[in-house]
Task: inverse folding
């Protein structure tokens, strides 16, 4: 597989996890195959990073607070284009992030996914967990230019839905296309203590501060990557509807909670893509724990 790199780096500069506009100038890039993983001490660190990424519930047990592996959202262990691949991210940092209003290096960006997507503790920048994930991502980016925007970074852009997304339409899409794997109750499926199909809401899933909690991110991810094994079968409308449905379910509290749901909504969720602080089916989202 070959990916193309834009010389513009626009999306990287403004810190979005989305592909840049059509590349003006592009060069081919492909991440190395797993068989090319180096040996020695550095190779051991890369391998540890891959293990943490694939089996986060085992290798980062005690750090994370849910049952999600990094690779549940960054598919093919962070290699798949259009699934926020690590080779697309690594060369794009340091970058300014509106989320914490400062320039973040790559390690700080990893810390963000621990805090929100993994609902966990934040490992120190010089911890083995962060260094191993950096080594793995650095290795996946072998040969990629720094500061360029790699096509395939983040999620593909998705058109706005023809009709406003609704919970009811999303529920129907979910029942027909998703519940067989993720469960009627969205709690996922497990075997021998390992996550087989990840939870989409509730205590085992990402918290209210996570990127996937944005209906826009979820719609883009789902349209490009789900249903697993049947990508391309959902219409744009269906992807927005099902994202609306998933992100209207309750999940662990935003760790930035300021003491009230209304206050937390005003400070961190004051946009049309977050359901935090909205009432759905008589339930105030964000009010549980
Ligand atoms: C629940 C799904 C989910 C899980 C689990 C998850 N992430 Fe993410 N991650 C996302 C989303 C969504 C984004 C894009 C967020 C945005 O645009 O705000 C993202 C973005 C990133 C980025 C930046 C990508 C870029 O192009 O700038 C990195 C790096 C990253 N994640 C690493 C990790 C690591 C490492 C783990 C495991 C410790 C992890 N993620 C777990 C959903 C997830
Ligand atoms: C055939 C089984 C299957 C079906 C059907 C399926 N998924 Fe998934 N889904 C998965 C698997 C497996 C993963 C994790 C990918 C991995 O680890 O490689 C996943 C990951 C996800 C994630 C990111 C992880 C998380 O917990 O948030 C979301 C969101 C998601 N799926 C939504 C959907 C939606 C919405 C549908 C229906 C339109 C759907 N899936 C249909 C198997 C499935």
Result:
């Amino acid at each position: 597989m070959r990916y193309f790199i834009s010389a513009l780096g626009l999306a990287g500069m403004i810190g979005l996890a989305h592909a840049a506009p059509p590349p003006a100038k592009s060069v081919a890039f492909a991440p190395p195959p797993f068989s090319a993983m180096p040996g020695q001490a550095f190779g051991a660190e890369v391998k540890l990073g891959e293990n943490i990424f694939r089996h986060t519930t085992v290798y980062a047990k005690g750090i994370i607070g849910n049952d999600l592996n990094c690779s549940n959202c960054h598919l093919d262990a962070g290699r798949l284009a259009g699934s926020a691949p690590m080779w697309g991210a690594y060369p794009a940092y340091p970058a300014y992030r509106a989320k914490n209003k400062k320039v973040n290096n790559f390690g700080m960006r990893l810390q963000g996914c621990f805090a929100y997507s993994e609902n966990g503790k934040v490992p120190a920048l010089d911890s083995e967990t962060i260094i191993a994930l950096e080594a793995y991502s650095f290795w996946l980016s072998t040969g990629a230019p720094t500061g360029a925007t790699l096509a395939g970074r983040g999620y593909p852009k998705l058109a706005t839905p023809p009709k406003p997304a609704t919970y009811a339409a999303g529920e129907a899409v979910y029942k027909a296309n998703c519940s067989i794997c993720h469960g009627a109750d969205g709690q996922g499926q497990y075997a021998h203590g390992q996550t087989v199909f990840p939870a989409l809401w509730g205590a085992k899933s990402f918290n209210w501060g996570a990127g996937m909690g944005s209906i826009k991110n979820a719609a883009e991810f789902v349209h490009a990557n789900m249903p697993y094994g049947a990508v391309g079968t959902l219409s744009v409308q269906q992807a927005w509807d099902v994202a609306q449905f998933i992100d209207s379910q309750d999940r662990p509290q935003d760790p930035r909670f300021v003491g009230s749901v209304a206050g937390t909504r005003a400070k961190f969720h004051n946009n049309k893509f977050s359901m935090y602080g909205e009432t759905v089916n008589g339930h105030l989202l964000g009010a549980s724990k």
